[in-house]
Task: structure prediction
Amino acid sequence: MFLIVLESILKLCGRWLKINQKPWFFRLPYGNEKVYIVLNVTIDMKTKNKKNKNKLSNVKTAELKESYRTVLFLFFSYPDRKIGLNDLSEELGIAKTTAKTLVLKLVDEGFLKKEEVGKAWRISCNNDHFYNKTLKITYNLELIFLSKIIQDIYRKIPGTKAIILFGSYRWGDDNENSDIDIAVETLDNQDLRIIEFGKFNQFGYRKNIPINLHVFSRNKINLNLFANISNGIILDGFLEVHP
Result:
């Protein structure tokens, strides 16, 4: 009798679910469990919720990585600066808890130094850390290539053969007071001349950075200066290094 009633109920439910286009399935009970029908839509909702949580987690991870980069870039721009946690959070526009997490991570990595003054933090950069010789140089190059300075040099310096970044920006020793030194080899036979080539209005977190062009011909340049230039990074063109 029970099975007949159950079958009738299932048929009615099946018709209703079919009419309303609700996928479903029936699970046989175990022991004294009650008979129930599970709608697949419920399972779909749970799956979607998991996917949404994963997406949210991915977004948070991406935001954390981007905030990590901004902390690095700030100290690349101001390697001699000491700053508190509140000021760091406010200047970068990130939550204080995020700033704290990232500072502690960078302290563990050895890039930052943290001094506790009472309950406050005084945060500074470890200028001897290898990030300043690797990631910072890449950062400097990225900012230069994203600007139009290479095109401007070709346009304003006739006979340009090679454009080379040298000096502090090449080695990652630069600070907020450093000028950008770029050597330009030309095909003429003139003596070395230094040209003030304007300023970078914005260079990362720095502003109004002077650019000096060291324009030279291969036959008329001091050998020590040329050795310094030849150890630079070629931004464009070809530099011949020969006795």
